[in-house]
Amino acid sequence: MVAAATTSFVQDIIWKSETGKSTMMTTHKRNRSVGITLGISAIAMAVLLTTDGAAAQVKTSKKRKVVVEEIIEPAAPVKQRTVSLSFKQLGAWSAVNLKGVDGSRTLSFPIRADEMVVGASLKLNYDYSPALIPELSHLRILLNERVAKVLPLPQGKNLGNAVDIELDPRQFTDLNFLRFNLIGHYTRQCEDPFHSSLWLTLSDLGRLELTLASKAVVNDLKYLPAPFIDRRDNQAIKLPFVFVNKPSLGTIKAAGIVASWFGIQAGARGAQFPVSMNALPDGNAVVFLLSNEKIPGLDSPAGSTVSVVTHPTNPSAKLLVITGATEEELLRSARAVALISSTLTGPSVTIAKETAATARQPYDAPAWVPTHRPVRFGELAKPEELRSQGWYPEVIRLNYRVPPDIFTWRTAGVPVQLKYRYTRLPEHKNSSLNVSLNNEFIHALPLNYPYQAPNDANRLNLAGSENISKHNDLLLLPPYAIGGRDQLQLSYFFDVLKHGECQNMPPDNLQGSIDSESTLDFSGFPHYAALPNLSYFSSLGFPFTRMADLSETAVVLPDHPDTNELGLYLTLMGHLGESTGYPVLRHTPLAAANIDSMPDADFLVIGSANSQTLMTKWADQLPIVATNGERRVREPDATWLPAYRWEGKDVHAVEQSKGDLMVLGQGNLSTVMAFESPLKKGRSVVFFHADKSGDLQKITDVFADRERIASVKGDLAVVQDKEVNHTKVSRTYYVGELALKSRLQWLLADYPLWSGFFVVLGSILMAAAAYQPVRRLINRYRKK
Q1: Rounded CA gap, 643 and 630, in Å?
Q2: Of residues 709, 704, 624, 619, the one with CA closest to residue 669
Q3: Cα 367 to the chain's mean position, in Å?
Q4: CA–CA distance, 129 with 198 (Å, rounded to integer)
């Protein structure tokens, strides 16, 4: 989808060379001066040698002492940093369990292109079976298939082991594989390789600590998003944005577009964009300049340009400088970064002209599964990610995103046409393929059933015969389990049949795969959702991301936003870009005074203390509002409860009265509030507010953390330093369309008494309508 937009984004790009005639002339002069200096030095050396030779002939008996001084200039210090990676960050979802006589588990991790490993330490906590024979059992740790350490497993020390292992920095590459291999034996005789006593568990508290040193990087746009974001880095991103003075709304929009693109590159790691005014931070940063703006130590190129330059005070850091003579030219440069960064090359480019990108359609976000057709598994995962092997194969995980307003209520579920293959072991009847969704078990498909006829095995490769090696099953994902970010888990379990010691053991090449032609079908489901629901926004930015380019979204900022308010705005744009996989090209930043100019829009409102006038203007709509030292909290309204139908909840049995609570206190709150737009029904508002500007950083931290953001729910979320509390107090409203039958069922399901009333009323009306015809019919028979 992004490629389609890129083709419509036509530009004339002018590369500006950093070298030229003047550089060549300077080099020539430098070479000439060096030649003259060398000539004078040679003459002086000859004179000295002649003098020393003469002195040697006159005083041959006198011993001389020659002292040679070597002057070594100190090298510039290399910037280093230490990174500590948990096993979860390395890809382990839980503790690493090794089983069997030769159990293995591999964790992978990358190294940034602009860094190199100069020190590494592996910290392990592990337990193992007391039945293991020490002379025959050990744990191997391999780095990129080179043995880094072999740990013995002595008797009597099987619990609470901790060890620090130094790793050789020379063995690290761009992409690294850390493998743990258990060699376990419990008897010196014939043994069962699957015996329950063959186990070792590596705690998920284990960590890999790396000391990384910076490497020199050339100034070239072709490496974008590096060095600002490295795709191989698995750390959370914190990339400063630099402005001059108070940026205009056009500059803010350009920064939001670039932040959304960086959010896409950061992916699930999350990204923050702290703001700096009139000063460059010490490390990498993104700088936005209009033609009349200057930052000390940094030149501003003329026109619409994108450049990578070296930090003026830190040679190991880079600056991405985005400039324009006007706001429109600055926006043009920002769109170039967001749409065609892969085509940029050289230290600097000038964007001469552009053709606007094609407008997006509802629900066409590149990161979301299509909802108008079945989607193939091959569109969601690589072929190697759909395979697993071994006696204890890894779980196959299929990640996908679906619009949160997919309406699956009172349906059989979402159909999955599952095609799969596996190693056939006809006598092992208890093997299965277990299917789960978001760690909730759904179904187990039996494997390895006996051949139906003796000659079935001979028919596998006959031309024209049915392909019995590939199996096909239709599954239905339960409606209640469908969310925004889903993971379908497919786990092969191979049964181990034991006929006796060392008899009829299965081969060690057991394999299972999911065919890439398997499909997941969300077509046929309407789009309908009950709002407000902050979990939709925290998960996928819904309903704002219904249009991937945010063409129906306005961001309301204070008249003079400070660095904390701008930082939250940029982090939200990064979150929304990551949610859709598309930059926020058409969102509209505006001041509160101009909000009436966009009545048919969804609003993101940001403010702190008294900086946001909408806090007062919309006070009657807010779940919580502070005025004159008092904080008014709206009491819960029972009508909201049906909105949680997907969570298995129902209407509260006791009706709660509506009202307000007035609370006096001096504590500071950071809140996220959601409610229906006062300007138009069916439109949404999400309001971000903190009593102190600095406390907006709490909200920023949450929206940059993929784990904590899941706790933002309801319509009122209060963000603390380490936790998020939420509730639901506002009136429910609905977005989307339903068929008449479904709509009536949905509405009447909340009011069973009304359903009974309409049934009785319908019966009475039908009886009244039939009374006269039936009476006439009876009278006619009586006359006969």
Answers
A1: 30
A2: 624
A3: 11
A4: 6
- Give 91-122 pLDDT, tens digit per residue: 887 899 999 888 899 998 888 888 899 999 99
Is the CB of residue 160 less than 8 Å from the CB of residue 248? Answer: no
Percent of the chain at pLDDT > 90 equals 53
What are the structure tokens assigned to 542, written together?
Answer: 């819904």
Number of neighbours of residue 319 by Cβ within 10 angstroms: 26
Instruction: Give the number of other CB atoms < 10 A from CB of residue 183.
Output: 20
Q: Which of 483, 608, 592 is nearest to 533 (CA)?
A: 483
User: Looking at the DSSP assignment, which residues form a beta bridge with residue 661?
Assistant: 633
> Which region, left, alpha or beta, applies to residue 701 given φ > 0 means left and ψ of -120 to 50 means alpha?
alpha
Question: DSSP assignment of 682-721, as one string?
Answer: T-EEEEEEESSGGGHHHHHHHHT-TTGGGG--SSEEEE-S
Find the angle CA(541)-CA(543)-CA(546) to the nearest 5 degrees.
90
The CA distance from 192 to 627, in Å, is 74
Residue 651 CB neighbour total at 10 angstroms: 16
pLDDT surpasses 90 at 411: no
Compute, in degrees rounded to 10, the torsion defined by CA atoms 520, 482, 271, 340. Answer: 30
Of the candidates 327, 325, 263, 121, the one whose C-alpha atom is nearest the C-alpha of residue 581 is 263
Across 354-382, average pLDDT: 93
Q: Which of 66-70, 400-404, 544-548 has the lowest mean pLDDT?
A: 66-70
Measured CA to CA, the distance from residue 666 to residue 664 in angstroms comes to 7
Cβ neighbours, 10 Å, residue 339: 24
Between 762 and 62, residue with greater pLDDT: 762
Q: ∠ CA 284-287-288 to the nearest 5 degrees?
A: 165
Q: What single letter denotes the amino acid at residue 503?
A: Q
Count the Cβ atoms, other than its own, within 10 Å of residue 678: 16
Q: Are 540 and 706 a contacting pair, CB within 8 Å?
A: no
Q: d(Cα 22, Cα 28) in Å, to the nearest integer?
A: 10
Strand partners, 445: 433
Cβ neighbours for 74, distance < 8 A, ≥ 6 positions apart = none
Task: Report the candidate in 445, 687, 654 with the shortest Cα–Cα distance to residue 572.
Answer: 687
Residue 496: the pLDDT is 72
Residue 570: CA count within 13 A, CB half-sphere: 30
- Closest to 121 measured CA to CA, from 155, 60, 166, 69: 166
Residue 537 makes CB contacts below 8 A (sequence gap 6+) with 543, 544, 674, 686, 712
First-residue to last-residue Cα distance in the chain = 78
781 contact partners, CB below 8 Å, separation of at least 6: none
Task: Tell me if residue 704 falls in helix, strand or coil.
Answer: coil
Contact 520, 374 (CB under 8 A): yes
Whether this model's pTM surpasses 0.85: no
638 DSSP assignment: G
Question: Which residue type occupies 655?
Answer: E
pLDDT on residue 8: 45
SS3 at position 331: helix
Q: How far is CA 386 from CA 293, 393, 511, 769, in A?
A: 52, 12, 11, 63
Hey, what amino acid is at 427? E
Q: What pLDDT was estimated at residue 644? A: 43
Query: Angle between the 563-580 and 696-703 helix axes, to the nearest 10 degrees?
Result: 20
Give the integer Cα–Cα distance in Å for 125 and 107: 16
Helix, strand, coil percentages in the chain from 3-state DSSP, rounded to 5: 25, 30, 45
Q: Which residues pair with 349 in a beta bridge?
A: 15, 306
Calpha distance 531→642 (Å, rounded): 10
